[in-house]
Amino acid sequence: PPPRSTAIVVGAGFSGLSAAKVLVERGIDDVLILEASDRIGGRIHKQEFGGVAVELGAGWIVGVGGREVNPVLDMVAQSGLRTCLSDYSNARYNIYDRSGKIFPSGIAGDSYNKAVETAVQNLKCQESAVRELIKVVDPSTTPITPMELAIDFILHDFEMPEVEPISTFLDFGEREFMVIDMRGYEHLVHRLAGEFLSSSSDGEITDARLQLNKVVREIQHSRNSVTVVTEDGCIYEANYLILSVSIGVLKSDLISFQPSLPRWKRKAIEDIDVMVYTKIFLKFPYSFWPSGPDKEFFIYAHERRGYYTFWQHMENAYPGSNILVVTLTNGESKRVENQSDEETRKEAMQVLKDMFGPNIPEATSILVPRWWTNRFQRCSYSNYPMIPDHELLQSIQGPVGRIFFTGEHTSERFSGYVHGAYLSGIDTAKVVLEEMKKENEMALIEPLLA
Ligand code: FAD
Fold first, then answer.
1. Is there a contact between 206 and 12 (Cβ–Cβ < 8 Å)?
2. Nearest CA to ligand 1 atom 30
3. Could you give the number of structural domains in the chain?
4. Mean pLDDT throughout 293-320?
5. Same structural domain for residues 64 and 102?
């Protein structure tokens, strides 16, 4: 018979590991974690590039300085991870047009403030539209010029606190700290895993309860158990299953369910949008961009929204690294994922030449993460409508028999963030423990009722 455990956790990202940790700490020793890739951490992933550690996935602790302490900040403090404050507020004064001219700060600032006002107004309209079930469209607020498009992109594709009443900012504060540590953000994941899984003296996890390179392809579920089939033909059984794969993976056909998921669950999975967010890293022989903390972030205004718009130099984080980062999202992310890195390098170089002139040095290397094409991710994070939809959230969280769902996309208040993933894992594990308790109680009562 296939090996049987009390609970299987699919996925060893932050949410899967935090769920498994809670179970083990509550005495469920035989948890089995099946992870598709050859590493833990999922969307927290550092890579060495140009002599420093760069974060392909999560890079910031978002939500610092507020009335409550972000749990991830606590972990950062305990682990001594090096971070630095990111001040985006200057970006609006470093907007370049295609001829390399910087928009005067007055014009850029006014345009920015107007865009914020419009966005807030639009949100209010949408809220009342949802309340009163009417559709409101105001064409006068549509951004048109390259600068308006660039600002629109920054405000909406980057979730700026002044526009959106996001719980992360409301609860934990509006500051963001970037991880700048050679151990990477993923050091927190390794620490979390090390708290309940055994590891060797060099920190490598050796615990047999964590199985890497185990791609779950089929989940069979019945009244009494769950059976998991992996791509390499292994079969595992459990009483309960916690599924922590991303919303992108749930939308894809990587995992089939027998019997298939009920309609309400499939609809919820379909209804949640995904965001693709890509940080492209470029290494240069020397720096040619304006330096200084107030120049860390800069913007390129192009007539195509989101075309190599948002830039950051890494000199504040790693002085002398000569690395620039440009962030693309959604359609532009997918487009560059489908072309060669050399084509992307050429496009980015042309944009930099527009901004800084034709004599700048060529980038010597480029790193283009591919979150969308990666079949174990298929997105960067979930993208909920700005107006909370409780029914949708309940459906995405809701268990199906013995299958329990977790991950950033199931977090009611903090979807899209590392702390959302971490807290959702804890919450899901608690729900599973409750379920176990109920079942044990029933098992005691049933013979008496017979
Ligand atoms: P994941 O980390 O995706 O874990 C799921 C795991 O399941 C993965 O390891 C995956 O390999 C595995 N898996 C998938 N399919 C299977 C299968 N079939 N069988 C077995 N295993 C499977 N958050 C912030 O707070 N700050 C940021 O600055 C930030 N920036 C981001 C930038 C980018 C580019 C990205 C991609 C994300 C960013 N996020 C950020 C979001 C944050 O990284 C995620 O919310 C969080 O890491 C998600 O954790 P998770 O456990 O829910 O999912």
1. no
2. 58
3. 2
4. 95
5. yes
